[in-house]
Amino acid sequence: MPILQLPDTLINQIAAGEVVERPASVVKELVENAVDAGADRIDIDLEEGGVRLIRVRDNGSGIAPDELPLAVSRHATSKIGSLDDLETVATMGFRGEALPSIASVSRFVLASRRGDDGHGSALPVEGGRVGAVEPRQHPPGTTVEVRDLFYNVPARRKFLRAERTELGHIEEWLRSLALARPDVELRISHNGKPTRRYKGGTELFSDDRLHETLGPEFAKHALRVDHAAAGLRLHGWIAQPAYSRASADQQYLYVNRRPVRDRSVAHAVRQAFGDVMYHGRQPAYVLFLDLDPARVDVNVHPAKHEVRFRDTRLVHDFVYRTLHEALADTRAGSQVAPAF
Ligand code: ADP
Ligand code: MG
Fold this sequence. Notes:
The chain is α+β, with helices and mostly antiparallel strands. It folds into 2 domains: 8-198, Histidine kinase-like ATPase, C-terminal domain (Heat Shock Protein 90); 214-332, Ribosomal Protein S5, domain 2, CATH 3.30.230.10. The chain is built from 11 helices and 16 strands. The strands form 3 sheets. Strands 1, 2, 3, 4, 5, 6, 7, 8 and 9 form a 9-stranded mixed beta sheet that branches. Strands 10-11-14-12-13 form a 5-stranded mixed beta sheet, with helices on both faces. It starts with 7 loop residues before the first helix and ends in an 8-residue tail after the last helix. The site of magnesium ion has 5 residues, from helix 2. Magnesium ion binds next to helix 2. GO terms for molecular function: ATP binding; ATP hydrolysis activity; ATP-dependent DNA damage sensor activity; endonuclease activity; mismatched DNA binding.
């Protein structure tokens, strides 16, 4: 077969394989865009676990009408302009891939209005075929509507799980965002019924938000952590060992406010809890690790679930020592029995 340059739509559909795994990944990308646009209120409407519809509306900066086509084209971003910018990037996004990827595997509409513009506009995209920008009533901010996810990618659709399961993934991701962004109000509805509301307007470290997201039991057992050394800061909450869990379902780690999974940090946490927790039990925690963005590479994975630290050992030992210290009081007695 001769070598052919693939058409854009196909390139986007291939890229979508990495960025868009399931409805929850779409919600993640759209809500992160809303946060990056400075929104402090985001409405998320879902139908059928997000497969039928995901609509994310924000009150952020909005997009100029003539930039709508750019927003849905590949590698177009307003968030970085050079490799240097990548070293200090503070936004959740920067790869300029999410919208074109999502729009290539769904029936998609991007509608927006900047505060100063008299009217809004909208751009429909169907399975990657970009339509024409048209005027549309819209309050300041942006709405992205994603219908019939994977309607044109049967192989992907097959992997979608039951409505409940997909909804569960979405809710879990929103919970992790809500913990990191208590300043943002989130309203979630499913099949026309409001299901969840995070109030917003509070600052990081708000016990209210902890209560809202993880419930009264976690909040009751929470120990505050806040320690800084060597340009690293670790803050948040760990639950006292009495509140240990059977599974790792309440372990939230953020690096510069970005929710991530990291083996080395997870190991440090486990080690710190090692001698205060029964074998087989899992600690519960919400931890924010902040450091100079130049000391951590966030461009490791298209979905940015992982990061790479310049100095893994230092980070590991810092986390271990901070938590070991925080748990000192609970260690004074003997092992604490699990509460359930
Ligand atoms: P990235 O977030 O990596 O820049 P995306 O494909 O997610 O890439 O979005 C492309 C661009 O579209 C963004 O850089 C931004 O300028 C614009 N954009 C997307 N969503 C929003 C939004 N909710 N509000 C304002 N601008 C947005
Ligand atoms: Mg984005």
